[in-house]
Amino acid sequence: MPDHRPDGYHALTPYLIVPDGGEAIAFYEKAFGAKESMRLSTPDGGVAHADLVVGDSHFMLAGVTPEMDLATPTETQWPMVSLALYVEDCDAAFAQATAAGCAVEQAPEDMFWGDRMAKLRDPFGHRWSLLTLFAEIPVEEVQQKMEAMFAGG
After folding, report:
1. How many CB atoms lie within 10 A of CB 41?
2. Is the Cα dihedral 45, 47, 53, 54 positive or negative?
3. Reduced to 3 states, what is the DSSP secondary structure of residue 84?
4. Any idea what the Cα angle at residue 75 is, between residues 64 and 110, rounded to 5°?
5. DSSP state, 65?
6. What is the pLDDT of residue 9?
7. Distance in angstroms (rounded) separating the CA atoms of residues 57 and 83
């Protein structure tokens, strides 16, 4: 009997809707080093469904088709979800992604919770946070720092 999920998948797998699936696959390969593991095509050659792998994680995507009742983010509408991608080197991944065409929302910066983080928006409207752990900080200390931040400290 098969496991409840395919080999290599984690319990939660993001699924992105993009205007042009083929263009998105090529972009994610260039920006984040994604590897295409599977693609199903529409009759006109579009992407009905694709599976990509970045690091040890899968994500899926599909191009918009008239049969779907889904929308992609727009320049005036923020996406409802942000993707957090842990990478070995936040600064190098940031340079690669911006060179590929991601818009910068936040340059790499050390955060009080122990991650170096950068925020980007891809050409399809999806927001990505690139993260590299630099310190394991106890949650109680992170909570204190969070409270100080909200108090204006």
Report:
1. 14
2. positive
3. strand
4. 110
5. -
6. 87
7. 12
Q: Show the tokens assigned to 149.
A: 């931040």
- C-alpha torsion sign, points 84, 58, 12, 137: negative
DSSP state of 68: -
64: left (phi over 0), alpha (psi -120 to 50) or beta: beta
CA geometry: angle 12, 18, 20, nearest 5 deg: 135
**Per-residue confidence (pLDDT) for residue 75, from 0 to 100:** 65
Question: 2, 46, 3, 51: which is closest to 22 by C-alpha?
Answer: 46
Nearest Cα neighbor of 112 from 83, 91, 143 is 143
pLDDT greater than 70 at residue 70: no
Among the ranges given (27-31, 124-128, 130-134), the one the predictor scored with the smallest mean pLDDT: 124-128
Q: How many CB atoms lie within 10 A of CB 77?
A: 10
Quote the pTM value.
0.86
